[in-house]
Write a structure and sequence with these properties.
The complex is a heterodimer of chains A (about 150) and B (about 70). Chain A is mostly helical and about 150 residues long. Chain A is about 75% helix and about 0% strand. In chain A, about 10% of the residues are buried. Classes of the chains: A mainly alpha (about 150), B mainly alpha (about 70). The interface of A and B includes residues 68 and 147 of A.
């Protein structure tokens, strides 16, 4: 039982939440296809699929963080080291610079014609979801600290 | 499933916190909390690990009398 992975209760809960998230994704995609069939288009393809997948992934992450099934018993006590934080930061910076250079000097035409707001909607949805996940994570940590080890 | 007060009292008798017991058995504090509150049924392996740490038998901690079983 002593390992870096999730313990038995965490695994059980994560599996349950994973099944729920998968079913949610399935039904939302079905509803989206149905709505499309009736002529209601809330977002252009493939942005609609990406938005649904992001929403389901967010649901999954929120639920597993809320149920303390995101990190295992050994990992949670260790936390992220300073070296790892620097590495993540450096990776993000290099990625952003690379994307900027590629867009500035190597992309001749924009990917969309300017009428499509999908990219902006996806960006906003992703940022909102990330903020929600961060808030849930902070609340969960705060609650865990609050619980008295009685 | 009712609260497992026997586990809680045995842990307190050993002067251990939920975190101490969790670290000794290789699970999270939330799992020990859920077992004590009756929200989670642990596996036999975890029951045995808890009993070993607390120096008790399975009967002493996990056996429920008819009165307490509700």
């Amino acid at each position: 039982m002593r390992n870096n992975n999730l313990d038995e209760m965490q695994l059980q809960r994560r599996n349950k939440i994973g099944n729920q998230a998968f079913m949610l994704l399935f039904y939302l995609l079905m509803i989206d296809i149905g709505l499309n069939g009736f002529g209601f288009r809330w977002l252009n393809y493939p942005a609609n699929v990406l938005a649904i997948m992001t929403a389901c992934m967010t649901y999954y992450l929120i639920r597993i963080i809320w149920n303390s099934s995101f990190v295992g018993p050994q990992q949670s006590s260790k936390g992220i080291t300073r070296k790892t934080r620097y590495l993540i930061g450096a990776t993000g910076f290099v990625g952003a610079v690379t994307a900027f250079i590629l867009q500035k000097y190597f992309m001749e035409a924009p990917a969309t014609n300017g009428d499509d707001n999908s990219a902006m909607i996806l960006l906003v949805v992703s940022i909102v979801m990330l903020i929600i996940i961060a808030v849930v994570s902070i609340i969960d940590k705060w609650q865990n600290k609050k619980v008295d080890n009685n | 499933m009712g609260k497992n007060l026997k586990l809680k009292s045995s842990r307190a008798a050993k002067d251990m916190s939920q975190k101490d017991l969790a670290e000794a058995t290789g699970v999270t504090r939330q799992t020990i909390n859920a077992i004590e509150n009756g929200d989670y049924n642990p596996s036999v392996n975890l029951c045995i690990a808890i009993c070993r740490v607390l120096g008790k038998t399975l009967d002493q901690i996990f056996w429920e009398d008819d009165e307490n079983a509700k």
